[in-house]
Amino acid sequence: MNFDNFIEKRRVDNGLHSMILELSADEYLEYYDELNEDYAMNILDSYLEYRGDDGRPSDVEIEYDGEYDIVRIKANIHYVGNDHTTYRM
Prior knowledge:
Elements: E1 7-13, E2 16-24, H1 25-31, H2 37-51, E3 56-65, E4 70-78
């Protein structure tokens, strides 16, 4: 996956970072055959590692937007009280 093609949006509210990642449905379907939260978590973990970001995602959701033909991954990213994240492989 080419993470440089992702669009990242973040909002911070009382220390909680909410993130939305958007990617083309075509790129998503090159790697995965269905939308599910396990795949979304895998993409998030890989994306955060690629960016050198040690936040920890939770409350992951994934959805398809047929109007724009994109996949959106939504999650909360936690930093407070974090030790440096050990990335999963």
